[in-house]
């Protein structure tokens, strides 16, 4: 795979990862629980995310409510919120920086070494964005696992389990880090050596006579 194709593949993967991270941050299905009574009509599905909690009735009615106060939230939710916001900001700047540094764009064509360095910087931003997303979903999953297995009077079938947003977040982190790694392969060292080689003056074999 050529350098330009590799950069394009990395950029598309990282962009898809950023979009998936945005979807994971917005979705309320970070953890979910379902409780069914004696009659199936009393079944209720509960979903909780970083910003809101929802209850879905068996009749199809869904009610959502935003979390009341930021300071009253649990520590792991506040931490995951901060990590996801940082991840989205890093990914946003990575999108802009990578476009400038990619070989398939016209910006900065006169200096390919600097252009490659910019592409590497964009790849680093994507990798950091993926790490923040991975840390957020893993921390939340750890808390859900701890609450599920600790001693409690809540029946097991009514306890919270992993929601779909966690799996979306893991996929987003993988895509962002993969795309960022491909962009980081745009090392400018070879181009710099090639330019220095071509710029070396050729020794003249002709003799000058006075």
What can you tell me about this protein's structure?
This protein is α+β, with helices and mostly antiparallel strands and 210 residues long. It has a domain at 16-27 and 69-185: Butyryl-CoA Dehydrogenase, subunit A, domain 3 (Up-down Bundle), CATH 1.20.140.150. It has five helices and five strands; from the N terminus they run αββββααβαα. It has helices at residues 3-26, 75-101, 112-149, 164-184, 189-199; strands spanning 31-35, 44-48, 52-57, 62-66, 161-162. β2 and β3 (52-57) form a beta hairpin. α1 packs antiparallel against α2 (75-101) and α2 (75-101) runs antiparallel to α3. The protein is elongated and about 65 Å long.
Concise synopsis of the structure shown:
The protein is an alpha+beta fold. Helix content is 58%, strand content 11%. It has helices spanning 3-26, 75-101, 112-149, 164-184, 189-199; strands at 31-35, 44-48, 52-57, 62-66, 161-162.
Give the topology.
Blueprint: H1 3-26, E1 31-35, E2 44-48, E3 52-57, E4 62-66, H2 75-101, H3 112-149, E5 161-162, H4 164-184, H5 189-199
